[in-house]
Here is the input.
Amino acid sequence: MGTIKQGILGPFSGKVGTVVGGTWKGINYMRSIAQNIKNPRTEGQQTQRSKFSLSLALLKPLTAYIRTGFKAYANKQTAFNSAMSYILKNAISGAYPDFSLDYEKVLVSRGNLAQAANATATPTTGSVEIHWTYNGEGNATDYAMPLAFNKDNGEAVFSTCAATRSAKNLNLNIPQEWEGCKIVVYLGMISADGANVANSVYLGEHTAM
Here is the structure.
C-alpha cells in the first residue's frame, strides 16, 4: 500500500495500483510496474535477439569507424544504432535459427558523397592493397576510409583518412597474427571537411597474408 506524506497532491511512496512511488537522492519519482511476460522466449523474440547478436558482433569492433561512417544518420538516434538498424533490415539472410550476415550487403558508411569507383582489394604480406579510379567523380580532396574485418576473431582495422581520392590507392596494414584468417574489406569516402560521407563499397572476402 502507498503512503501520501504531503497531502493528496504531494509525493507518495509504495505501490498504488499499477504505479510505484519513491525517492532517490532526494528526488521524488513515479514509475509503472513492469508487466509480466508470459513467454519471454517466443520464436519472434528469439529471432530478433539472434539477428541483434549477429549485428552487434560485427559493429562493436567498428564503433569508432561507424561514428564517422553513419554520422549523417545520427539525428534521432546514435550513428551506431543507425548502422545496427540498417544491417538488421538489409544484411541478414536465412531463417531462424540459421541466420547469417550477408557481408556484401553490409554498409559501414552511408551518405550521398560519390562512392569509390572500380575499387579492388588485394592482400599482401602484412597489408591489403586497395585501388580505385578517379575521373572527376567526387572531389580530389576527399579521403578514403578503408576497413578490414576479421571474420575468424571478430577484430577490425581501419582508417577514416588514409589517402586522398586523387591518390587512387592505399595500403591498409593488418596484424601479423591475422595471417591465414578470412577478412572482408570495405572502402568508404569522406569529404575533406568531414561533412559528407559515401556509401561504403564491399571489396570482397580474402585470406590475410
Remarks:
- The helical segments are 43-59, 63-69, 79-90.
